[in-house]
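Section: Multi-chain targets

For targets with more than one molecule, the full set of components is provided together so that the structure can be written out for the assembly as a whole rather than chain by chain. Components appear in the order listed by the source. The example entry contains two components.
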Amino acid sequence: MKRSEKAVKYLHSVLASYKLYLLFLPGALILILFNYVPMFGSVLAFKDFIPKYGIFRSPWIEPFFKNFNNLFKDEYFWRATKNTLVISGLRMIFVFPAPIVLALLFNELKLKWFKRSSQTILYFPHFLSWIIVAGIVKQLFLEDGLVNSWIILLGGKGVDFLTSSNSFLVMLIIIEIWKGVGFGSIIYLAAIAGIDIVQYEAAKLDGARRLRVMWHITLPGIRSAISIQLILSLSGILNGGFDQIFNLYSIPVYDVADIIDTYVYRIGISEGRVSLATALGLFKSVIALILVLVANKLSKKIGGVGLW
Amino acid sequence: MVKKKLNRLKPADYVIMLVIVILVALIVIPFMNILAISFSGNAAVLHNKNMLFPKDFTGKAYLALFRSLGVWRGFGISVFITLATTALHLVITLAMGYVLSRRILPFKKALTIFTLLTMIFSGGLVPTYKVISQYGLLDTLSVLIFPGCVSAYSVLLMKNFILEIPDSVEEAATLDGANHIRMLVNVIAPMSVPVLCTLAVFCSVGKWNDWTSAFMYINERTELYPLQNIVRDIAVQFDSASLKDFDFSDSTYAFQMATIVFVSLPIALVYPFLQKYFEKGIYLGSEK
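Its structure, encoded as tokens over all components, is:
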């Protein structure tokens, strides 16, 4: 076919598909307005924002990296970064394995009714908002709340759970496990269901006991699910959990609880230091992107599975 | 059918069940506490807040709750934006998923990348706020509905699901003279009910629990606050300035707990029926 004929044919098919493009339009419009335009709004990181001129007419800042300079000189930035990494690290160590362990436990349950009903109850907290959970937590851990009265009953002293830096991080981890371990186990249970029964029967014939079976068959069998969850967790390492922390933290615990996202919120929205906050947000996004790419590559190399 | 031989329970099984029972208790007990406080008399609650069953049973806190106009307004707003967002989400996701699943479509790859890119990149807190502010959407109901109603992940799920529909079904419809709209409405949509239900569940729950949108974008017109934000003011932040509309009657704490119960109720009531949908959602998501 001649080039021009091909072009005309192509144009024809484009025009014939106009209905499809029309169907796609509303969603695309929303994505453009609320996802892509803000992406371009990130240029604020390189500007000296003047409210009167809005985002796109504000002048560029001299030199263009000045906002980032100010950022790296800011002590609270370093504190926020440290806190975010510490919390994410704790999350990796304690929160990440919990659903896996729970899935393994669920898998061992023999009584169907017990399994079903306990699963239903354990999945529930995931569907509650952090507002509800924060409200519950605040009540439980009041001076004269449930937990402290048990502690006193057992002969201890009342503890200041949420307002002391020492215990805040522990609380954070415990609460996060409480809320998410049930629902998080679903994906691993699904993976376990996919393991070939033959392997289990072979192991049984070889006389393997429960723990051995778990270690040598079940865990390796869900290796790809674990890898994928790990990648997703790694890519979220700079997040730290805004919803949870924002509702539970207070000024006394800022030194351990102020994460990048809460800091961005305070300086960007509360204090209006827009350029600085955007610079931090941009910085975070770029690092997060690099982390995802690296984690994905690593996962492919080690486990053979990746996100794409 | 041969009956399966009942496996004898070994000691290890009991230990595992014990662990699970402890976990279940850790979930149930806090709720018992909250419920108990909400139904307890003022003096008892002021004394301490560790009851698992109501002390001096009274429904006063709930009476005060039901008399609060603010709470009902928040409830109405939450219901409205949840339904509106979910409806919008389903329609748009269906449309976009259908388009991306077509075999022949010029620029399909570009459209797909356009959609998926939003899963990886985002503008960030401050640029999004500034952009929305410049659109003039601050302090409007729309800002609680439109910004989050399209999800690339949902579109992906939808597209994959539609791709699984046998070609013969679509061919038969085309032979009957169906154009795209007819195909979508009369053929694809009914077949996609399982996916749509799963998407509806996650979208509704997400929207019902969403407090950050109103928190950031509604500054002046606090009458637009969804229920979550009102509960937040009452039970989490306890900011006395915004609470002047509320008559706590006697016990503040019981009222706070009653609010928490109230906002959890819709989810708790609908939840048991949803289990199969969100479990299916996980399966679908992991298949991709």
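The mean pLDDT of chain A is 87.
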